Amino acid sequence: MDSKTLNVLEYPKILERLAGYCDFSASMELARQLEPTDSFDLATARLAETTEGRKLLAVQDIGIGAAHDIRPAADLAARSGVLDPQQLLDIKSTLISCREIKKSLDRKTDEYPRLAKLAAALPDSRGIVDAVTRILSDRGEVLDSASPKLAELRREIKIAHGRLMSRLQRYLTESAKKLQEPIITQRDGRYVIPLRAEFKGSIKAVIHDQSSSGATLFVEPLPVVELNNEMRELELKERDEERRILAEVSGLVGEHASDLKYGVENLAVFDLILAKAKYADELKASEPGLLEMKDERRKKEGSSLSSFFFRLLHARHPLLDPDTVVPIDVDPREGTRAIVITGPNTGGKTVSLKTVGLLALMAQSGLHIPAQSGSELPCFHSVYADIGDEQSIEQSLSTFSGHITNIIRILKKIDHRSLVVFDELGSGTDPQEGAAIARAILTHLLETGAMTLVATHYPELKTFAHSTDGVVNASLEFDIKTLRPTFKLTIGLPGRSNALLIAQKLGLPQPIIESARAEINPLDLRADKLLDDIRKERNRTSREREKLEKARDRLEKQSLELEKRLEKIEDERRETLAKARAEGELEVAVLKRNIDSLKSQLKKASQPLQAIKAIEEKMEEIEAKTTQPVERKPAHSLIASNQSLKLGERVNVSTLNAEGVVTALGESDAEVQVGTIRVRARLSDLVRRQTADNGPSKEMTRKGLSVEDRPSSTVNRPSSSPGMEVDLRGLMSDDALDKMERYLEQAYLSGLPFVRIIHGKGTGKLRQAVRDALRGHAYVRSFEEGGDKEGGEGVTVAKLNTG
Length: 803
Prior knowledge:
Blueprint: H1 3-8, H2 11-19, H3 25-32, H4 40-59, H5 71-78, H6 85-104, H7 113-120, H8 128-135, H9 148-174, E1 185-187, E2 190-196, E3 205-210, E4 216-221, H10 225-255, H11 257-283, E5 289-291, E6 312-315, E7 328-330, E8 338-342, H12 349-363, E9 376-378, E10 382-386, H13 399-411, E11 418-423, H14 431-448, E12 451-455, H15 459-467, E13 471-479, E14 484-491, H16 499-506, H17 510-519, H18 522-604, H19 613-625, E15 650-653, E16 658-665, E17 669-674, E18 677-682, E19 686-688, H20 698-703, E20 714-715, E21 725-727, H21 733-749, E22 754-758, H22 765-774, E23 780-785, E24 795-800
Parallel strand pairs: 5-9, 8-12, 8-13, 10-11, 11-12, 18-20, 21-22
Antiparallel strand pairs: 1-2, 2-4, 3-4, 6-7, 13-14, 15-16, 15-19, 16-17, 17-18, 22-24, 23-24
């Protein structure tokens, strides 16, 4: 790309902001060197990388951690150099960061294919991390455990230091009056004491230094010279051993220097992708669609120009304040090759040109652009811009000459795959000649096939754009009421000068205004009036369209809310059906147990089993209904007290779904003759028949039996049910087992055939304790793990013994 154009469009400022989101120097360097590419495949791949980075950052806080640019250290190690502790710690932290990134993207190739491939190319530790950890502390100190020899040397140094300090301390005590201060200090690596100058010679010693005033001599008493020598020798051996250890680990780094440098380069690319993602999030940008430009041109003169699609929706200049910048739409009709923008000074023409050019460069650099999703741009092979004042005193160039010199340079390089941006084309000279030159240049650009954006004040270019195929007018609006530009770009309409209206608003005398209007061609005034009417109509249509879009968005939002509500209702319906079926299964199981008990009692009483067949048939119907949807049933008049119930009255026992005759009444229950057996039921379980028969049953009369003559076998109703399940989660094992024991007793007495015990998954200790307690329990016949829909391993289903 043209370097001068990059500077004119302020592309380096974009790169500097991008570098601010990088986390280490290598990626910052890459960011500042990032250039737009003319390769469609490479630009598309870069954009896809940025998209993956944004997706990854949206779900995971990931970064390069404490990584460093370790390439200089790796080069030094490769040349058999010895790395210092800080360099080794930097290598360690960098390799740890690489390991964490690889771990984060492991098995995510399908979701983040490009980032996962990049992470796979990061270097492995190859034992370097462990080696550095073994010899260095986090503060960069060589550890005693780095080698047995170092540990032994430091033990000897500690002993020698103790002896030396003990001997010097004796001097501090015995010769306190001769010393400037009672302290032990060092000079040239040797321990000394501060002797007052007037006592020189009173202590046999070696003088190593003196104070600036000469009042203090730093001396080493002769009796401690040997101890100091021993101490110094040990320290030198310690230094040599530390260097040997560092050299050994440095050699390991040197063996893998090429892998480390290659890995750092990949890490820098990874960090740059994350930086582009962060910058895109900051700009509230979106991924643009890139369109590939073919190399074919017009085959012969006179054939139609090739065209390409160009759409920028709500585009914003990335360097302006996003809260105040006015977005523009650049969406010309298909086949457009040039856009001529007109409008007032400081109305935003130059910013609009820079926005289009800069966004094209950003897209081809792999950066998301600050525009609405759905924006599309061609992948230009080159971008050129001539914006600003090109005058040069040093080169004796006027404004016009400077512009023309730059335009000549650009015209030599462009082709049909170029984007050309010209600000104030033909300005700086005689208006008539400047307009002619501008039309000629624009015609040449159309013949070349380049996509062109031009800002101008020349009315001749408005006419040219209106009458030339492939060229469209555009304008930036101006608010006459406030005398300020609105910065809104309108495609398809040329701009108006509004000079007379502005002068009138500012207070120019009316006679002068009228005189000036008389000098203007009436056709031009009529055209301005027509343009104004068209603009007002377009604004009205635009406002109506915005209202419709808002209404559509509101309807879509309401539709989504209704869908969510319907989903919630459907979930509740399914839950209700599942609960109803579970209760039905429980009722059927209870009925089966009651029937089995009745059969047993009838056999013992030597009574026929025919009377219970009707109940069994009813029970089979109930069991079949448990698989059907729950339907609302008509309400029956339940019997609330024995005041409305009489002996001999026919009732329906709701729990058995069987008809019988009341034979005895209690406070809250009643005895009912069902066939040849008697059962006791709660009053709330009895439903009065609509045609009550207050006499004895026909069957009893036909057999010649009275109520008192029937067998007195009675089936007692179970006690109140504790429910089908008990929840033990959150309890200690002993408390949970006590609660389960009480629950099982109530469930057994109430006749439940099976129960669900919820203990959760967790570590499995509570589950094991529950199942150990159930094994061999007096009330439990068997138990099994809950099904997938019941809670799986977190639930145990226990089947209870029958009475």
